[in-house]
Amino acid sequence: xxxxxxxxxxxxxxxxxxxxxxxxxxxxxxxxxxxxxxxxxxxxxxxxxxxxxxxxxxxxxxxxxxxxxxxxxxxxxxxxxxxxxxxxxxxxxxxxxxxxxxxxxxxxxxxxxxxxxxxxxxxxxxxxxxxxxxxxxxxxxxxxxxxxxxxxxxxxxxxxxxxxxxxxxxxxxxxxxxxxxxxxxxxxxxxxxxxxxxxxxxxxxxxxxxxxxxxxxxxxxxxxxxxxxxxxx
Amino acid sequence: xxxxxxxxxxxxxxxxxxxxxxxxxxxxxxxxxxxxxxxxxxxxxxxxxxxxxxxxxxxxxxxxxxxxxxxxxxxxxxxxxxxxxxxxxxxxxxxxxxxxxxxxxxxxxxxxxxxxxxxxxxxxxxxxxxxxxxxxxxxxxxxxxxxxxxxxxxxxxxxxxxxxxxxxxxxxxxxxxxxxxxxxxxxxxxxxxxxxxxxxxxxxxxxxxxxxxxxxxxxxxxxxxxxxxxxxxxxxxxxxxxxxxxxxxxxxxxxxxxxxxxxxxxxxxxxxxxxxxxxxxxxxxxxxxxxxxxxxxxxxxxxxxxxxxxxxxxxxxxxxxxxxxxxxxxxxxxxxxxxxxxxxxxxxxxxxxxxxxxxxxxxxxxxxxxxxxxxxxxxxxxxxxxxxxxxxxxxxxxxxxxxxxxxxxxxxxxxxxxxxxxxxxxxxxxxxxxxxxxxxxxxxxxxxxxxxxxxxxxxxxxxxxxxxxxxxxxxxxxx
Lengths: 233, 479
Description:
heterodimer, A: four-stranded parallel sheet, two-stranded parallel sheet, 12 helices, B: Rossmann fold, 3 domains, four-stranded mixed sheet, 13 strands
């Protein structure tokens, strides 16, 4: 979802922050780690450390799940690998989820952006329960001028994505998604906002299959005045 | 109980297609889950209470041998007998022998998950002994010939109408309608059994090491009847269920009951301090405590899974779990369903048999958030996935397929170089371009077909963020 990244850049630059993108980066290793293949995840995670250790300043990621991987799960991935473990601990103090960085580090909870639309917000699992980042996105959204936020039933319940779970346990994952989408559609909102790209892909994929017009956007897009809020693809 | 953890997927499909079961699952969220949240919100310093509970259990498990010995000594001092059972069969043979020696005809049971591990009812019935469950939910599923659906609410999947049929058939009396009538009917049926039972088998929510007491938490009073009426009382507990002191008990009851049902205190909290003493008028003549291992030592030995022994069996993780609320309790295929069951069962059965359970989680963390002793369940599910894929100390237990191993090897190759990563994206774009409609795929080959069966899948974006960012940076410079 390249548009999400561009919105993050637009917002950070509008606050006078210089943004760099280490072009060699690929992945933090989470997919293999979550599937149990730690021997395959470890070198990829180690490469992630190499690339970002060569940089300075805070590392911003518009996905709670990836931040949780580095902050919470690298400790397990690198158990018994003390050098990488120490590097991971050092680096994890520099990595921030996007809304967490805006509110907790920059002290900005109002981006002075206006939207003439309604929306509902899904509280993505890793953001909410691994990083405990909840008030930050909520207050940023509440401060969008003109945005009509519709409360959603069970907004804290998982959408059923879960990485490879969505494929390995497709039926269970779909049942969870159906409950989530029923609750989304019951709000009547035209737009669904969420903070994690995996969940966005999952929920948008499900809404499309239902023939629903509800579009799913990343919170960075909602907060980026330059974004046209077109359906994420 | 014979595990059927291997068939999780087919059992889950069946449950998902069962409209009535899906309705019953709503009670788990709307009733138990919401009640727990309300009770926690209503309790001063709830988070501190959880921290204390975790500290008590961490300390106990770290000194398990010391406290087990203290417990056994004190039970014996109180006039009771202690038996350390290595597994279900061992525990069953102890109970069978005891029943034979005492010419036991009828055994009443108060809710015990350890006795489900043992498959005790079946074994005693084979010996010609009548066994009757006295917890209402357990009684219902016993009549239905099923196993518990939930550790706190074993018959939560049964409708009032089904219960009415079961009770009418068993009692040969008129079919009742309302919940009150049905409860009265069951009460009358059970009262008669209480009066003639020779032996009771109960569980133990806690055992207190310093006093040698066992503690039962119930709402129906059957626990108190079962521990006071028959001649012989047998309590069966997992070896992790003890706590050091009565002061600890107060802390643990506070979080257990709120987490289980949302009550501040259950209707009954029964403390049993062994058999009837010389100067006492009632109580059993004999008291036996069975302390069960049954694979728990495997959790104890594995540092990364040891925290599972902190579990106080409140059921909050099941109520919070969006997977449990879809697949229901029977899909998990062994005694303990839900998130904690997905750790305990595969360790009991071996990963070859049980590896589907740790995979049956979206890692959403709702269980960790709900747990009164803060067990980090997602972390341990990941640990078990890793043991399944690559890391089980016993290679025979590794259960990953060749194709899956190759897939992750290829993934790793792709991720170790940005050039290969980009090349992979290009291939993805070419392969999917004839299939995509406004950027999305409605059909894809395996393994992505699991996704596209019910959801559209995003085709790779025309340009990666890295490319967009580089182009823009160049454009800014050129300006």
